[in-house]
Write a structure and sequence with these properties.
Chain lengths: ~300, ~350
């Protein structure tokens, strides 16, 4: 195989991993604050359709990205009001958000089916990526670099900054955080909004970069894989990066192997893989818990009301 | 008039109804004939379900206030579909189209409970007194695009993004490959199973993998336009599926196999109105207008265009059957003898690949 083909495979792999990484990273922050938002798929679809609609109408992919981000935030706020302010069950509300997102995006997108927009291209000038090896470094779109920067940023924020420590405190022990005087609900709102923004951008990966079009359920279940990855990563951004790229690699290499006439994995096994891995990690974590290691935020999914 | 019963788009009915010019024209002397549709996907897929909905819209245009159509979209294949079909039957529809293979058993089951209602099941093989089946000979269209691919491929390799190895899909792969190999005896068709009818990102990645492995012609049996976009991006040629997808890939899109159900739907509704409707099995091809080819791209070379038009004409005239022997499978076993034509029976049960297909 030539370098050009290897680079081409790598580019596909990176592109396939990015939306999952973005959405999962946003969810990770929300869950670190103690909020389980199962509406990732719905928020991604809202972002995807808004990104497409605005790019189509304005001709600017950057405005489209902004719209996708805002649409993700807007969808997440529906969840936040219900689950955080009104203390609705988070699991049920999150699932409802996904169903709502599928329906709302279909409704908004009905007029955009069959329309086309320019693809979100590489951010660096084409001259930089003429050589295949340089293309592997400089040939990606802005979302790829943004997702990688955000992994570093989120990791630093959570582990090394005071606001990050407060956010984790809210997720680990909301009552104590409240007692010290931190605004638990407000912090959770912010974390959920961040999750919505990244899910929206993750959705935009599909409608602007991977397959620049709008079709119903464009994300085809990637939101669920993102959710599984958060658990798989044990709520660590670095591990999340590995997990997302591992998923992208397996999915891409499987298609490459099939195209080359080699079959190394039944497609059904591959479809199960992220979930099997999640179950395995959950099991390992529960074993770890008995030996004293805690990974999941202690207040994950629990409603909080200041008394 | 349209009434839309949908699981996920409750608010859509009002929007659709407002676009109808017929509302408010006054009561008709006769109650409109109710016609129901069950769709496996969303109408917005711009693929299979979309083409059936185009058929429904053609009915509305043709019959106006004499009929009343309704549909349920996103109905999962399998036992649960029976509920959706029953819902349409109980709502007073006289004719119900169930438009996916997996609705076969539920359709038969519900039809037994409503003997006075007529059912039409697409792509199935089980019939009853009040259940007819219909399908299109898509493989005829595949033979036309295979001819073009054989003429225009420089690498002699086509990439085929396929969904599931059911006879319908296998038949298409073989028809495409046989036609291409008639032009280029060393032609190779590489198949990647996406294991889904609809996952745009995955379909695009499958197309990219095939292009990486040397294919310079991409064709597909999945529902989205994503493989065409991938072909456009990588500068190779591709063929559209189910509808004209040129907008998604102006340079890559050579032509498309277009499904057109409207003629059949209009005819069957007329028969219900006349009382002449009978159960049966219709398998229509290019000749019957079920399968059409989208306008050819200017990039199609004169030789390829002439050969493709020739094939199309011969199929319509009945002088060419895409599955004419001798046809050997991958193991070298003769499946269709020299000079013979594959029967519909062989086609509808096809589970083997022609020599030279990599699947």
């Amino acid at each position: 195989m030539t370098t050009a083909i290897l680079v081409s495979i790598l580019m596909t792999l990176v592109a396939a991993s990015t939306p999952i990484l973005l959405a999962a990273l946003g969810e990770l922050v929300a869950e670190k604050a103690g909020v389980l938002n199962l509406g990732v798929e719905g928020m991604m679809l809202c972002g995807a359709v808004a990104g497409f609609a605005v790019t189509f109408s304005s001709g600017s992919t950057m405005l489209g990205l902004l719209a996708a981000l805002l649409a993700g935030v807007a969808a997440s706020m529906v969840f936040a009001v219900l689950a955080l302010s009104l203390n609705a069950n988070q699991v049920a509300t999150g699932l409802a958000l996904t169903i709502f997102g599928i329906g709302a995006s279909s409704l908004i997108g009905a007029g955009f089916v069959g329309r086309t927009i320019p693809r979100l291209g590489p951010i660096f000038p084409a001259a930089l990526s003429e050589h295949p090896l340089l293309r592997a470094v400089f040939g990606h779109d802005i979302l790829v670099y943004l997702s990688l920067a955000l992994v570093v940023g989120v990791s630093f924020f959570l582990r090394r900054t005071r606001p990050g420590l407060i956010l984790r405190a809210v997720g680990e022990n909301d009552a104590s955080a409240h007692a010290i005087g931190y605004p638990v609900i407000a912090i959770r709102y912010a974390a959920v909004a961040f999750g919505g923004a990244l899910a929206g951008l993750g959705g935009a990966c599909f409608s602007l970069a991977l397959t620049p079009m709008w079709a119903e359920r464009l994300t085809a279940g990637r939101g669920w894989i993102a959710l599984a990855l958060v658990v798989f990563s044990a709520w660590k951004p670095g591990r999340l990066l590995i997990g997302a790229y591992l998923f992208g690699a397996v999915a891409t290499l499987e298609l490459q192997a099939k195209a080359a006439g080699v079959s190394f994995l039944a497609p059904e096994v591959l479809a199960m893989a992220p979930y099997l891995a999640t179950i395995a990690v959950l099991t390992m974590m529960s074993i770890g818990r008995r030996t004293g290691r805690l990974d999941a935020p202690a207040c994950l999914g629990k409603p909080f009301s200041a008394t | 008039m349209t009434s839309i019963i949908t699981r996920r788009r409750l608010t859509f009915g009002a929007a659709a109804a407002s676009t109808l010019p017929l509302v408010g024209r006054g009561a008709q002397a006769q109650a409109p004939l109710g016609i129901g549709f069950i769709y496996v996907g969303p109408i917005g897929d711009h693929g299979w379900t979309w083409t059936h909905d185009q058929g429904r819209l053609a009915l509305e245009k043709h019959y106006g206030s004499k009929i009343k159509t309704s549909f349920i979209e996103n109905v999962a294949e399998g036992p649960d579909a029976a509920r959706a079909i029953r819902q349409l039957a109980q709502a007073g529809n006289q004719l119900i189209f169930t438009t996916s293979f997996g609705f076969m058993n539920p359709t038969i089951q519900v039809a037994k409970q409503f003997p006075k209602i007529k059912f039409e099941h697409a792509t199935g093989y089980q019939r009853a007194e009040n259940v007819a089946t219909y399908n299109a000979r898509f493989y005829e269209g595949r033979a036309v695009i295979g001819t073009i691919a054989g003429h225009m491929s420089k690498s002699g390799q086509a990439g085929y993004v396929a969904s599931f190895p059911i006879p319908e899909v296998v038949m298409g792969i073989n028809a495409f490959h046989l036609a291409a190999r008639k032009v280029n005896p060393n032609f190779k068709t590489k198949v990647v199973w996406a294991s889904t009818w609809y996952d745009p990102a995955k379909e695009a990645d499958a197309a990219k993998a095939l292009i990486d492995q040397g294919a310079d012609m991409i064709t597909q049996h999945t529902d989205s336009a994503a493989p065409l976009q991938a072909a456009e991006q990588r500068g190779v040629f591709a063929f559209g599926q189910a509808s004209d997808m040129k907008a998604f890939a102006p340079k890559a899109h050579l032509t498309a196999i277009v499904d057109d159900w409207s003629g059949y739907y209009v005819k069957r509704v007329q028969e219900v109105m006349d009382g002449s409707w009978k159960s049966g099995d219709v398998w229509g091809g290019i000749k019957d207008g079920f399968v059409k080819l989208a306008p050819f791209n200017d990039a199609v070379t004169p030789a390829a265009r002439a050969a493709a038009e020739e094939v199309q004409k011969a199929i319509v005239a009945g002088t060419l059957h895409p599955f004419t022997g001798e046809i050997k499978d991958q193991k070298g076993e003769v499946r269709v003898k020299a000079g013979e034509k594959a029967s519909d029976e062989i086609l509808s049960k096809m589970d083997w690949y022609v020599d030279g297909v990599q699947a």
